[in-house]
Fold each of these.
Amino acid sequence: RRIYAVGMGKGGEMAATYAMLRADRVAAFAAFAPLTPSAEWICPGPPPPGLVVYRACDKIAPCEEVESWLLARDGQRAVTRRMRLGDALAEEPSCAVRNKCTPKKAEANHHRWPKGKEKDVLGFLGGTVLKVP
């Protein structure tokens, strides 16, 4: 009842995909800087719960692309906790970070784990238990 999938970048996409493929075994997933998984949820009911942590300034997983996937999850009634980060791990109010997002910074942000947010990730996962019929 407490099996979770966690990953960063492509690993985050895999965590979400695995949670969808094994929704009978995985209670939830957490992903940092993922793009939209290639697998699509086609089962009845909402997809597994997820926490998605991403940066407003990210060259490889652009904020707008991540949010497009999150909107699709909203349309499927999926429980999704989202954390859009700016500088210094503070939550950023929007994807628009004009004059702050240089190409070099955008690439570095993708590869920089949000150290200090582990408590949030573990809190979300720990509060999610697989409902067994």
Amino acid sequence: MSEQKLLQVSDLSVSVDEMQILHKLNLSVNQGETHVLMGPNGAGKSTLGNTLMGNPNYVVDEGRIFFDGQDITGLSTDKRAGAGMFMSFQNPLEVPGISLSAFIRNAIHAQTGKPIKLLAYKKLLESTMELLNMDPSYADRDLNVGFSGGEKKKAEILQLLMLSPRLAILDETDSGLDVDAVRTVSKGIEEYQKRENGALIIITHSTKILESLHVDHTHVLVKGEIVASGDSSLVEDINKNGFERFIKD
């Protein structure tokens, strides 16, 4: 595992609709590391993910975000994606008029700045869909339109594997999935972990998706602050005892 710092969040405070959600939060992610972010509802987990990706609805009041040594605090979402950042959403949007295949191919072109040969692309797409147990016909369907919840989440992981970003933020990717779908999504994330220097921030309430994954660091977020950090054993602690001991009145 590389010790090169990939993401550095320094004293980050963030507001949504003029209400401050994150308070002087600090987080450091090295290349190749997997960080798990857990906490009760309303703790600010998704706020952090959206802020890291540059969602304009999330206003940085103070603090800085550095990616690969560059200050990206003011960069737009597309610039961050071009630098190698990716986020899968809890509720993926439907995009009529563009197929899943075309969307991913365009995203790869935008990320690399280079065209990808159609035949090579199709072969890679087919093999990756097979890994995720996805019906190949979904490649030609409009992005997420008419997809089940499980297929939408698989499509997000498909994008993760095809784009192979330097940092992936997975926001409640396991939300609403049955046991088989969780296992498939987890298999896709595990495949991403095998790739050199790919880093992960996994935001989750459930520990099921983590069972087959290597976890380097676990953080507990409460009321917009990281109140505890540890290794993978902290996941087991939370699984057994919940968040109550971390919550102060």
